[in-house]
Design brief:
4 helices, Alpha-Beta Plaits, single chain, alpha+beta, 4-stranded antiparallel sheet, two-stranded antiparallel ribbon, 120 residues
């Protein structure tokens, strides 16, 4: 079963990290990624741009309409997400608890109920 783990943040939160701690945090996350890619349980890991780079795209009268995002007016946004493929919810929770970020803040975990590939 697949799960998405999401780390939330904000520009203020990222800017508050001292540089040497940031370097250590990235190294710890790289080690986590390597460990779980080797087991085949980490399918993908992506860091996202900040809120100044988000865009809302909709279609009106058949034409795209693009505006600044994000959609929700919140202090935090999804800073990165991870796609896991594991045997159980318990295993997904173990892996997410092993994320370096989980020692600082909660990581949101959602089951993936289906994918477009399932329908092909």
């Amino acid at each position: 079963m697949k799960y998405v783990a999401m780390i939330y943040g904000s520009k203020a939160k990222w800017d508050a990290f001292p540089h040497d701690e940031w370097v250590e945090a990235v190294a710890a996350q790289d080690a986590f990624n390597t460990k779980y890619r080797a087991t085949g349980e980490l399918v993908a890991a992506y860091g996202l741009g900040d809120e100044t780079q988000a865009r809302l795209v909709r279609r009106e009268d058949g034409a795209p309409v693009v505006s600044d995002g994000p959609y929700l007016e919140t202090k935090e946004y999804i800073g990165s997400f991870y796609l896991l493929d594991v045997d159980s919810a318990e295993r997904a929770q173990e892996i997410v608890a092993d994320m370096p970020w989980a020692a600082r803040e909660p990581v949101e975990l959602w089951p993936v109920l289906h994918s477009a590939d399932d329908d092909l």
